[in-house]
Amino acid sequence: MWYNFRVKILGIETSCDETAAAIVEDGVRILSNVVVSQIDIFKEYGGVIPEVAARSHLEAIMPVINKALSDAACNWDDIDAVAVTHAPGLLGSLLIGTLTARTLAILHEKPLYAVHHLKSHIYANWLEREKFPEFPILALVVSGGHTQILSMQKHNDFKIIGTTFDDAVGECFDKIAKILGLPYPGGPSIAKAALSGDPNKYHFPHPKVDGYNFSFSGLKTAVLRAVQKELGLPISHPSHDLKNHLSEQQVADFAASFQKTAVSILKDTLKKAEIEYPAKSIVLAGGVSANSELRNALEDAYFPEIRFSGDNGAMVAAACYFEIQDGKQPTNPYELNIYPRITIS
Ligand code: KG4
Ligand code: ZN
Fold first, then answer.
1. How far apart are CA 62 and CA 81, in angstroms?
2. Is 122 helix (H, G, I), strand (E, B) or coil?
3. 263 lines ligand 1 (CB under 6 A)
4. Which residues of the chain are under the pLDDT cut of 70?
């Protein structure tokens, strides 16, 4: 454990379509934060193509790490540890990050730590904060691949109390954006279109799920059916063609009505969970936590700064720091594996 000197951790993140590296001091202070997004590549396709993502990571990873070092005015002698995302994520993308981190750790003789992506998203809430979240915590993780509620009694103590049975909420934003003809990634596009829409124009039901779990695939289908109905088209009409028949105002109204429903599902489930798991702090994490409707609906909650809500290396370094404080041991760099589908533990 490090208590007496300032610890600098290099965090590396490549689980999906952002190549990112950052240097963070004592788990909370940013010395540098470099993110290269592949959004411009995938806009053209309307979604991430795993093989293309991996190749782009390969091109970007060393320039990104070198920029993180130079922005922080650090050289390798200043770095105390390397932290890298090893789960969950796209297989090829995770491989580029972990193989790079392994090689650099061996070359520069630095301890190497494997970090879980969702823990990183949660620890983004400790970055550059004047006031830290207080335990017990209820964490709502809302990303492109996950929707979960976790109870935390202390650092590094995660109990999943709710999860999605099908789509993640971010995935639902992305898929509905595609139906409406809005560009990838769908979350920010829906949020932007919704600004000029009527959130009460269409009504979508909340799914009936037990406990503090979620289901978003029904909401996606409900929006699809409502669009077909609004246009007077049969349910057999291909979803990829609907956008050609929608007016700008209809798109805005669907975006606003869907967003309102998604936010209220998240809020209601979280409020229900709070009764059984009273919390001093509510913490939001993951890409969808950038959504301003969600931020407004849960105004007492902690949110990461917008630059830390999507994928970044700083949150990896932060999570790693708090794990080390709890006694986490480095991984043998020759044995570090990736776990594309593993849940938090
Ligand atoms: O955490 P993240 O960057 O990557 C994963 O770990 O999945 O989350 C990406 C997701 C995407 O589905 C994207 O559409 C969504 O976050 N997202 C948003 C917003 N910004 C990003 N969803 C709603 N509103 C936003 N402003
Ligand atoms: Zn993420």
1. 17
2. helix
3. no
4. 1-4, 345
Strand ranges in 297-338 using DSSP code E only, listed in sequence order:
none
d(CA 112, ligand 1 centre) in Å: 28
Q: Which of 48, 143, 263 has most ligand 1 atoms within 8 Å of CB, for mutation?
A: 143
Distance 310 CA to ligand 1 centre (A): 6
For the whole model, what pTM was predicted? 0.96
Please report which ligand is nearest the Cα atom of 316.
Answer: 2
Can you tell me the distance from the alpha carbon of 24 to that of 21, in angstroms, rounded to the nearest whole number? Answer: 10
- Provide the 3-class DSSP secondary structure of residue 116: strand
Supply the pLDDT for residue 110. Answer: 98
- Cα 145 to chain centroid distance, Å, stands at 8
125: its two tokens: 């809430």
Q: Which residues surround ligand 2, an ion (CB under 5 A)?
A: 143, 311
Cβ(293) – ligand 1 distance below 6 Å: no
Residue 239, pLDDT score:
95
- Given a contact cutoff of 8 angstroms between Cβ atoms, the answer to whether 167 and 209 are in contact is no
Q: Which numbered atom of ligand 1 lies nearest the CA of 173?
A: 14
Ligand 1: nearest atom to the Cα of 293? 24
Q: What is the pLDDT of residue 4?
A: 54
Q: Which has the closest alpha carbon to 177: 246, 122, 115, 129?
A: 246
Q: Judging by DSSP bridges, how do beta strands 147-152 and 8-13 pair with one another?
A: unpaired
Give pLDDT, residue 341.
87
| CA neighbor of 319 nearest in space, from 28, 63, 2, 95 | 28
Helix (H), strand (E) counts: the chain: 10, 9
pLDDT for position 344:
77
191 lines ligand 1 (CB under 6 A): yes
Query: What are φ and ψ of residue 181, in 5° steps?
Result: 80, 25
Strand (E) or helix (H) holding 112: strand 112-116
Q: Check residue 26 and report its DSSP letter.
A: T
Answer for the pair 143, 286: CB distance below 8 angstroms, yes or no: yes
- Give 239 Cα–ligand 2 centroid separation in angstroms: 27
Q: Copy the structure tokens of residue 87.
A: 């789960």
